[in-house]
Design brief:
The protein is of the alpha/beta class. It has 2 helices and 8 strands, in the order βαββββαβββ. The strands form 2 sheets. It has a 4-stranded mixed beta sheet with strand order 1-4-3-2, with helices on one face. Strands 5-8-7-6 form a 4-stranded mixed beta sheet, covered by helices on one side. Strand 7 and strand 8 form a beta hairpin. The two termini are 26 Å apart.
């Protein structure tokens, strides 16, 4: 199998709110949009983000058409402390303050207007080898 592109698709009540949030705070750009749908890209993300309005009749399978819940969208970044200060200054809702795990992962988490949780991570020590 050859994968040519990767996309993370999230069902949210307000597509525009999440799309605006990732454009403003995470630097994504809109690739395409239609009623109840927007696709965004970022040159460093490795995948596209798609937001679909909850309840779209065209969503398949219908049993999975509810809102994204329990999902965490994570990005590894450089200069985690600077990103944390920048996003706090922009008024982003921080739901987990910045902290460092014993295994070397420094991170914080934030919430967009639809409740989707995004995590920024920087490895301050090399992850343990298994």
């Amino acid at each position: 199998m050859q994968i040519t592109e990767s996309t993370l698709s999230l069902n949210v009540p307000d597509v525009g709110a999440s799309a605006d949030w990732v454009r403003e705070h995470l630097g994504f750009t809109q690739a395409m949009a239609a009623d109840g749908f927007v696709s965004l890209t970022h040159p460093d993300a490795g995948f596209s983000l798609v937001y679909l309005r909850v309840g779209l009749a065209s969503f398949k399978p219908a049993s999975a058409a509810g809102p994204a819940d329990g999902l965490l969208v994570a990005f590894t970044v450089d200069a985690i402390d600077a990103e944390y200060e920048r996003l706090r200054a922009e008024g982003v809702e921080i739901v987990t303050e910045i902290e460092t795990e014993p295994w070397g992962e420094r991170y914080f988490q934030m919430r967009d207007p639809n409740g989707v949780i995004y995590q920024l991570v920087q490895w301050v020590e090399a992850p343990p080898q298994s």
